[in-house]
Amino acid sequence: MLLYLDNAATTRPDNRVLALMAEIDRHCYGNDSAVHVMGVAAAKRVERARLAIAACLAADPDEIIFTSGGTEANNMALSGAPAAAGPRKNHIIISAMEHASVNNPALRLKAAGAALTLVKPGRNGIIDPAGIKKALRPATALVSVMHANNETGAVQPIAEIGALCRARGVLFHSDACQSFTKTGLDVKEQHLDLLTINSHKIHGPKGVGALYIRKGLKLPSLLAGGGQERGLRPGTRNSSAIAGFGLAAELAAPAQAKKVAALRDLFWAELSGRLPGATLNCAAAPRLCGILSVTLPWIPGAAALLQALSARGVCLSAGSACAAGKTTPSAALKAIGLSDAQALRTIRVSLSRFTTEKEIMLAVKEIAALAGKGKGRHAR
Amino acid sequence: MPAEKIDLSGVPCPANAARALMRLEGLDGGAELEIIIDDGEPAANLPPALEQEGHTIVGRVRAGAKWIITARKSQ
After folding, report:
1. Are A300 and A372 in contact (CB under 8 A)?
2. Best CA proximity match to A340, nearest among A357, A358, A368, A318
3. Number of C-alpha atoms within 13 angstroms, CB side, residue A171?
4. CA nearest A100: which of A175, A211, A167, A170?
5. Among A40, A61, A62, whose Cβ lies nearest the Cβ of B17?
6. How many CA atoms does the CB half-sphere of B3 hold within 13 Å?
7. Of B48, B46, B70, B49, whose CA–CA distance to B60 is shortest?
8. Residues 30..49 of A with a Cβ closer than 8 Å to B: which?
9. CA A154 to CA A152: how far, in whole Å?
10. Does A231 contact B at CB distance below 8 Å?
């Protein structure tokens, strides 16, 4: 039996989403920019998704720009922010635990002459708004802090950070790919100017995401082309994937998050009972319902850990999925104070609404059996 | 009963027609929807798109650079 506990990397598409997409691809394949009846039919699918996603964020539908995913949306936000913020705004602040699709565009801006400040989280995995406040300068164009960390699940105080950015006239962006539909998002209450979300973390298809852009904010486009998505994201829209994304958002319900959180807590209760040497990272922080970061007391070696678990049927990540294959310690885990050795012994267990109690119990048994092999040996 | 309204200013074709049609889907047969739409292609393209789906255009009034188009939902 395969135990899929890597839902922070990607989720299984909901069957209803797959059925909708197949139906659109077969029968509703017109270009949604065309004004004929087939175009209008495709546009209805796209606009329904735009309305559904906007409703999830308390945004206006015209503030939603569809992209190829979270990476593209983050790149649009980061690389466009200095131009959007205005002249002499050449300072960017990001957290020290951002996804590579925020971190690397920020490094590009730095290479092009911008000043960049990285604000570290505390040991609880939380960015202190006071740390952001201290880093702000008159030249600050943008602050970008993810809503929930993809490795620890720690939910960041974005409403407080957004409020202080708004008070100082600084643009605020958040990458909410992990948190979208799982914990509260309200672009007005959280004072967001830019927000990244994607589809495949919420049981939708891969290859589609969106950027919320606050009305009135003028962001340059990454690509030059036609006028789709208000000229910000030219190119024929993937209408079936967008419709699938919209349906996935409609199917997500707050009750599901409670069920997932209960299974997350069951996992930790069972694992910590069997492996007293295991530690739960960011235990004191508000955490996302579906992510657990656990440092194991012993592993068979950093490179062999995931293969050993995979051989036991357990699919999960050590560090973020984008870093999978590398055995360098995760920067996000180091930012919360873990040593290199501790970071390399850390696994990320991530659940979805399809995860069952039986799967949790089987996975705990396998992980405890593997990490328990080191009993009596020194932690590496 | 006052007609439902939808402001589709700035919404390109055919997304404007798509949104108007979705709104009409939520109304009772015979109910009217007032649609604010930009002059030019949007005002030209929207009415036939609604008529093609069986709705009736019962009013077209110019309001500066926009039009107010009233559609009656099919029974």
Report:
1. no
2. A318
3. 30
4. A175
5. A40
6. 20
7. B70
8. 32-35, 37, 39-40, 43-44, 46-48
9. 5
10. no
Residue labelled with tokens 């690397």: A104
Report how far residue A288's alpha carbon sits from residue A273's, in angstroms, rounded to the nearest whole number. 22
Secondary structure of A269-323 in HEC code, one letter for each residue: HHHHHHCCCCEECCCCCCECCCEEEEECCCCCCHHHHHHHHHHCCEECECCCHHH
Contacts of A40 in chain B (CB under 8 A): 14, 17-18, 21, 49, 52
Q: Chain A residue with minimal CA distance to B10?
A: A62
Give tens-digit pLDDT for A294-340: 999 988 887 788 888 999 999 999 864 455 555 788 888 999 999 99
Among A216, A169, A173, which residue's Cα sits nearest to residue A196? Answer: A173
Q: In this complex, which of A44, A62, A227 lies closest to B18 when CB atoms are compared?
A: A44
Amino acid letter, A350: S
Map tokens 């109910």 to a residue.
Answer: B31
The type of residue at B12 is: P
Q: Do A51 and B22 touch (CB under 8 A)?
A: yes
Length of chain B: 75
Phi and psi (nearest 5°) for A362?
Answer: -65, -40
Contact A345, A298 (CB under 8 A): yes
Question: In this structure, what token pair is assigned to residue A87?
Answer: 């002249």
Low-confidence winner among A333-347, A362-376, B42-56 (lowest mean pLDDT): A362-376
Handedness of CA B8, B14, B15, B21 (dihedral sign): positive
Interface test with B, best of A36, A38, A47, A60 (most B CBs within 10 A): A47
> Is A56 among the residues known to form the active site?
no
Q: ipTM value of the model? A: 0.91
Three-state secondary structure call for residue A111: helix
Instruction: Please name the residues in contact with A295: beta carbons below 8 A apart, sequence gap of 6 or more.
Output: A278, A279, A281, A338, A342, A343, A345, A346
Helices (H), chain B: 15-25, 41-52
Using 50, 70 and 90 to split pLDDT, how confident is the model at A142? very high
Sheet holding B66-72, edge to edge: B4-7, B32-38, B66-72, B56-63
Which among A276, A324, A241, A254 is positioned nearest to A17, based on CA atoms? A241
Contact B73, B30 (CB under 8 A): yes
